[in-house]
Amino acid sequence: MNIPQQPVDSALLAYQLTEAPADTNVSRLAATIQRLRREIEEAQHAAEGRALIELAKGVLIERLRCGVAKAAQQLATLAEQAGVTQLELAADIINQAAQDRISEVVREFLTAAEAGTATPGASDVAIRLRAAESGALKAPDTQAVAESLLEHALAPLGATAVAVWEAGPDASFTLVGYAGFSEEEARRWRYVPPGVVTPARRALVERQAVWMEGIGDGGLPSIGQRETAGGRVTVPAGTGGRVMGVLEIAWPHPLPPQPPQIRKQIEALAELCAHTLDTPMRQEHEPRVLPELIDLADALPDPALVLRPHLDADGRLTDFRVHHTNSHFVDPAGRPRSVVTGSLLLEAYPLAAVDDGLFTKIEYVHATGEPFRSEQMMLTALVDQVPLPSVAGISITRHGDNVLLIWRIQDEAARLASILQHAQRLGRIGGFEENTLTGEITWNGQLYALYGMESGEQPIPLDRLADHAHPDDGVAIGRFLATVLHHRRSASTAFRLQRPDGITRQIRVVAEPVFDADNRLVAVRGAYQDISSQHWTEVALAATRDQLAETEQQVAEQNRLALRLQHAIMPASREPIEISGLNIAVRYRPAEKEHLVGGDWYDVVMLPSKQILISVGDVAGHGIKAATVMVVLRNALRGLAVTGAGPAQLMTWLNLVAHYLTDTVTATAILGLYDPETRVLRWARAGHLPPILVRQGDAEELDLLRGILLGAISESDYVEGEIQLTPGDILLMYTDGLIERRDQALQHSQEQLLHTARHSTETLERRLDYLLTHNNSDTDDDTCIVGIQLH
User: Collapsing DSSP states into helix, strand and coil, what is residue 453?
Assistant: First the structure.
């Protein structure tokens, strides 16, 4: 409603702008503008309130059978007695009289407020919703409807923008009203083609409200996505089972879950939008069934039904009425057209109501406008209460408020022919028949495609088959023709077909003779099959098998060589050694699989200095390479130890050997030098697990000395440690194959090993056997244990 602004004295305004100070003039002018704007808003609200009061007066006039003055007096009296304003009472009277969706929302909101589950204020909700309804009803277009909804009903909920989308018959969207979005954004989103997934389309397809905490959560584009990046809700707006459009509301901040009362308000506003979209302001009135639709159905060569929505007393869609059947209509149950025409769809075909059946598809198309087509859909009709299934091609489209249903029942012969056609296409098979009396040749379409020929070209007879084949296949084709044409027996052969386009295909042909009642040969029929892919697959497999066999033979030979080398240097078991007061025992268990020959090694040797060198190592990897590196490192350590250097220096030199004299292979190692005179063992490690000392029934690991694994870098320093052995002490050195597991950490496995090492045994050899028996490793790796016991 336009309220004229109050005139301002021009002379007074001129004086204020010239004589008064500048800042005073500006503040006065701003105060005047603010006062005028406030007066305009108050006038607008008063006008909207008067509209509700006038509607309430109309209800009282109808109920009390009185005049306008008496109704106004009665309204004022009732408001005074109830202690509410006339506007609040007017909204309550309208709710009581209307009993519509808005009334339902207000009642639920009031009930929740009384129960303490919602903020009180049902009267405010009623006034806002009725004011929005009044503004929508008197709005000249949907643009004004959107502005009224935002101002009266949505802004109090914190929303800052709204868009009203009209759904087209092809499931497209047209922006018919908006508020809170910029004009440039509205122009960009004026039309959304069908198939573009947006929040509005989700609401259309799902036929329910879609709430999003943020517009970016669902990853769907929509209007004002950059301007208003907060919460969004899209609600389908429909009546009578048909979705007319979608109401989209935007918030500037993330939208938390809303109570049911707010959701009901939003759905009531969407229903209000549906009524405005269905009014003459949007489109001219059209009859329930278009004559053009009847003409279209009659012109179709397939059975067609024109369906009209059937609504109950509350305007809800319950069924579809068969308004028209065309002349080609054939009822699956054998009933005449007159029986089906005019009946309800679920009465005529009750089994169409099964889940995801025909009725569900029709209802979806009517609601969304999105067409549905299926080449094969099961239809079931009741014939004397006996279900009669049949397969049909279905097409469902919406035209205005009506639905056009087209079906084509597939008979058994057509269905089998279709299956055969697809089978020939998938199997690359072409069929033929050649009349030996008339020379007439019949090819199907797939055979033309195999030969690379056009469907109108002259087919190639069997006796000219060799002209289109590779010359080397002439003998095989000759035998095939002699068997079929002369000996009159079925036969098959394979040949290389040389097509006109220069492509060569591997073809298998099979044929059989056809005889008449007098046993005369009258025709030859058969089929060609393109077996090129199978042929080249077999060729590739044959080559792969040959290459694989050669590779397997090489790998097996390498594994046998590595295993022999490993067994020659380190036998699986050896007798204990008694040397300089030490009892030394070794247990070596190779990998369970021969192809996993590893690089574990151990060595015990007395040096010229009478010191005893004890070493254990593990080369990374398996096979001949690991075994070879193991031999290099083991022998190099023996040679270096003769120099009399300590363990740390020996490990430094051994690292140089691993880095420069092997092919980029790394290894872990631990070595010790035992002096029989002092009973001191000096030791160093390179990335290896520390030794375990068993003393007086307890077991513990020695300190983890610093030392990087061998071969990783060229220059590396190693730390040397020492331990004073006492009689009865046992020192265990081992490789990770003893404890390593795939399903647990190495630290946990080490703790289990310490627990096992505390087990008391009669001899050192039995202690090592016990460790091997009760280890928890599962990596199938080599395992090496060296035990030292001081007498």
Answer: coil
Residue 71, C-beta contacts closer than 8 angstroms, at least 6 positions apart: 57, 58, 60, 61, 64
**In whole angstroms, what is the distance from residue 551 CA to residue 619 CA?**
24
Would you tell me which CATH number, out of the four given (3.30.450.20, 3.90.950.10, 3.40.50.920, 1.20.1250.20), belongs to the domain 415-530?
3.30.450.20
The C-alpha atoms of residue 191 and residue 171 are separated, in whole angstroms, by: 11
Query: In this structure, are residues 402 and 293 in contact, taking their beta carbons and an 8 Å threshold?
Result: yes
Query: SS3 for 4?
Result: coil
pLDDT tens-place string over residues 614-658: 999 999 887 777 878 888 898 899 999 999 999 999 999 999 999
What is the phi/psi pair of residue 297, to 5°?
A: -65, -40
Q: What confidence tens digit (pLDDT) does each residue in 150-204 have?
A: 887 788 788 899 999 988 877 788 898 899 999 888 888 988 887 788 999 888 8
Contacts 24+ apart (CB under 8 A), 318-327: 319/344, 319/345, 319/346, 319/347, 320/344, 320/345, 320/359, 320/362, 320/366, 320/403, 321/345, 322/348, 323/289, 323/402, 324/289, 324/294, 324/297, 325/297, 326/297, 326/298, 326/300, 327/298
| Architecture (CATH level 2) of domain 291-410 | 2-Layer Sandwich (3.30)
CA 754 from chain centre, in angstroms, equals: 49
Report pTM: 0.39
The answer to whether the beta carbons of residues 577 and 775 sit under 8 Å apart is no
Domain boundaries, the chain: 1-98, 119-277, 291-410, 415-530, 571-790
Distance, CA of 629 to CA of 727 (rounded, Å): 37
